[in-house]
Amino acid sequence: MVRRTGRRSLRNTVQQNTAAATSPASEMLYRGQCGGFCVSSSVHCCTMLATVFLAFGSVSCLGLEPPPVTDVDDFFVLNPSRIFPVIDDSWRLRVEGAVANPLSVDIETLRHYRPITRMATLECAIASGTTLLVGNAVWKGVPLRTLIEQAGPLPEARSVRFNAADGYGLGDFDLAAILANDQNLLAYEMNGETLPLNQGYPLRLVLPGAGGYDWVQWVEQIEIVTDPPVGDFDYLPQHARIFRPLADDVIAIGTYTIRGMALSGTGREITRVEVSTDSGLTWQEATLLTEFVPNVWKHWQLEWVISRLGRHFLLARTYDDAGAVQHEQGGYGWRDYIMGVNVEADRDGDAVPDSRDNCPDAFNASQRDSDGDGLGDICDPDCPDLDGRSQVSFPDFAVLASSWRTSDPNTHATDLNADGRIDPLDLAILAHHWLTDCHP
């Protein structure tokens, strides 16, 4: 087994952070949410990360979009204590152990090494269930093998260990395999910015394709040892996940866009995604939305035409460029991520289920409730309806203007402040409702 020290199990962490970890991945991804995401601290799980496609060029292929971008500030932090190690000017990265030339270098010295930049998707290694913690970023730093080679491993050296400032340790990994891999790096920048402390500043191990367990943060020691390796990094098999809807969401009957992502940590391309809305009895091909970059997610969507009310179970599965299909179950299988949702009636056709609609008999897609009384503005009696056809709109101003011009004493409905006359105060009240409370 690979040695992982200095942290609680991922299972316990996820169970204790269900409310936080299941914040809407789709919302985060599509408003500049990636998504449900996790930034690890001592848990060293993973980070919901942003993408800057500039490192790979912005030319699209086959009309697809580049992998999506999320701002660093939107990254989800999975760290209940929100306590991070203290990093000061005394910090050094040490490369030592069974080496001829031990290293001790500060962050400024590391920045003078020839850097590499890698786009990579980071996903917590959660092999089943509906919790999804994932993200994508462009990382810049020093090639891992450059530092190890400079330290000069002795002939008897066989493995590598990583130790962090928060007490987390990871190893032992095969030295020869690490030296043969030109993708791995120690990152000091994320999306063109200095790596934040809550993402592992000053240095984070970036392993494209590997699960979040292995992306060690706050790295302070790389130890070369003579012990034999005991495992490999946890490279993720191909799999699909659903961003939207979330588990147990209530959605309206009609047409609904299911969104998600597909990822292979082996570097292979996902060429097809299929979605089932009936527990795997039938499947429909989804539309792939984003370009292929090795070890980076592909986004996809499916327009679901819902024909019946009640409980539905959603699944998604992938195919790669070798023709292999995501396995059915046993960890990262398509059945391992089954998701239940509830479909309800929608009398007004605004795509909001009646039980969640603050005005279920009037089209009100925005669900605007400016006065916070639980009743949508479109059908709130607190809002003036001078023309008898809708809430505040231009025809209501016309009615008020007509009453004001004629000074008709019988038009009490336009006397909004009930002072016995139609005047600019009534106009101000109507304008206020239009601008704040009652405009449909």
Q: Could you write a compact summary of the structure shown?
A:
With 440 residues, the chain is α+β, with helices and mostly antiparallel strands.
Give a structural overview:
With 440 residues, the protein is of the alpha+beta class. 14% of the residues lie in helices and 26% in strands. The chain has helices at residues 10-16, 18-21, 25-30, 107-110, 144-151, 175-179, 394-406, 424-437; strands spanning 3-5, 93-97, 103-105, 116-123, 134-143, 159-164, 169-174, 185-190, 193-194, 204-206, 219-225, 239-244, 250-252, 255-263, 270-276, 284-285, 287-288, 298-305, 310-320, 339-344.
The best one-word shape is: elongated
Helix percentage: 10-25%
Provide the residue-averaged pLDDT. 82
Q: By helix and strand content, what is the structural category?
A: alpha+beta
Beta-strand content bin: 25-35%
Strand arrangement across the biggest beta sheet: 1-7-6-11-2-3
Unreliable spans = 7-61
| DSSP, total strands | 20
H/I helix tally: 8
Major beta sheet summary: 6 strands, mixed
Could you tell me how far the N terminus lies from the C terminus, measured between alpha carbons in angstroms?
A: 61 Å
Radius of gyration: 28 Å
SSE run: EHHHEEHEEHEEHEEEEEEEEEEEEEHH
